[in-house]
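Recall from the previous lesson that a structure prediction takes nothing but the amino acid sequence as input. Here we apply that procedure to Beta-ketoacyl-[acyl-carrier-protein] synthase III from Idiomarina tyrosinivorans. The sequence below is the only information supplied.
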Amino acid sequence: MTTYAEITGWGKCLPPAVLTNDDLATFLDTSDEWITSRTGISERRISHVGTSEMATVAAKNALAAAGLEADDLDLIIVGTCTADEIIPNVASAVQQKLGAKTAAAFDLNAACSSFLYAMHMATQAIRTGAQKRVLIIGAERLSRILDWTKRESAVLFGDGAGAMILEASDQPVGLLSSHISCDADARDVLSVDFGLSFDRFNFDGIMQFDFVGQEIFKRAVKGMNAAVAKVFEETGMTTDDVDALIPHQANKRLIDHLAKLCKVPSDKTVINIQNYGNTSSATLPIAFAEAVEQGLVKPGDSIISAVFGGGLTCGAGLIRWGQRVEPKQPNNMTLDDPGISALEMILPMHEKTAAAWKKRQQG
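The prediction returns the following tokens.
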């Protein structure tokens, strides 16, 4: 008998502090029109807590939706490129905060592709019988690694987390086919000088964020389209069989272009980038959670997802939803209000980085 990995729980965590395009225009040479016309983004969230805390809230919501307790989990995988610390990992913090004492826990960093990579790995673990219940999370606090003096990248990103529970099932549901890859020849077009790459004795306060937008766009569209084609080839399905496209939320132009290449109509494409920006590994699970909440995902639906991220990692998957689209328990836990605006959190980082750049240029 074939074992499948059914999605039985879903949840998200969106920080309450909102940073609008007009807020960004107070310290960057930009405007709401400039940002929305190029990216489709109107606002994004800024977190006052660390990645592990957002991940834990999303995880609790996913557990509630599945009607499970933390002790029911066999494995926790956290996809992130913005861990709270180098060691120990975010997943161990989530395990501790949840009280999931019997679960193994590890992080996975494929940048924006991390959640689909995690779903791919978790599904294989369940299909082989190694695990029965797996919690997968995508969580990012990108606001703490951005160079807030660089318009081209600062306007794109936001903070947030999303999660899913995968459980063993004898029904043909969950991630039925997936293809993941890496275009390492272009790994330098999206990179952040972070962690052990720092010379800690000579660090001048500038976190180098390299983002070659046009090259990323070109390679991302090509890679995602190829991955989707492989999934269709493996399953024998076509776009006529697809009920929804839920892609990585990186840029609305890119999503529209991907949908056109995949021949998925706009009314079947889930887009929420206007509200949250690019939350990297969190975009996919947040989009899934909202699509279910809003009735865009229905029992038995077939869904195509496609992602790309730093590396350049890439992937696509065909997901068949199960029969349940209602959470077993309320899954709307949120973070407490920070008592400070998003702009008030960002301005000190902008000012500090601007001063560091000035000092560097002065020699």
